[in-house]
Model the fold of this input.
Amino acid sequence: MNWITDTLRPRIKNLLSRRETEENLWVKCPQSGQMVFIKELEANHMVVPGSGYHMRMGAAKRLAHTFDNGKYEEIALPEAPLDPLKFRDEKRYADRLKEARTKTGMPDALKIGVGLVGGALTTIAAQDMDFMGGSLGTAAGEAIVKGMMTAVERSTPFIIFTASGGARMQEGILSLMQMPRTTLAIQSLRAARLPYLVVLTNPTTGGVTASYAMLGDIHLAEPGALIGFAGPRVIEQTIREKLPEGFQRSEYLRDHGMVDMVVERHELPAILARLVMILTHAPDMAAPRRVEAQIIPPGVPLPAVS
Done:
């Protein structure tokens, strides 16, 4: 019997695993440094009780939090090429995708559901930062278009919760192509006279901000969310000037007309339900016309709506 391998090593492993478990039970608030019990944080919808700091919230929890009674029909997403460019940096892109799918249980960075919001049938998409930083790739672009076309087919408003670091570099130009594709898909919502609401969460940056995230009929944002194209440090280095306090945060954008409302996470379901009710019961919205789910090319006039 070897005392080191048979007795000492298992005890050390047990000690380390216990420490890891204890640390995972607590989360440190990035704003105040407050340590919060993870169960308490989850019960408070990932909002730190003391400071009010809004932590990241996964796509599945977003949908459950927004739909009435947390019930919704999940929409199957179209398949996309796994690794179209056979990209490799420190590791293969295919391996990164596999790790992200194992970690999140999602095929890509987006989840879509259809259910009731304030009693009105609504289609909602939510991006997940835990899946490769919520980056916009071919699969995510296909999912967004699918969500918008589902809203057109079912004559429902469309809501999207954005959370992204921007385009997915491992897919190169194919990732950038999702910006005009999703922008064109929005035209189908407008042709069908269906409301398009955007909820900007922390962070929403890069190509996502430069496309569908800033093209909604109404823009809401969570408190303190970073919203912009390039980061503050890059902008400061480019213009060689000190940026204003709170620059690119949701409150700053609201004060300068880029965001309509900054809403606490607890209040979002009620606010969204109210907006959906108002927009779908306005005189010219009483009976949204069903249109064929199609992308309207740029430069082509929108069809007349009776």
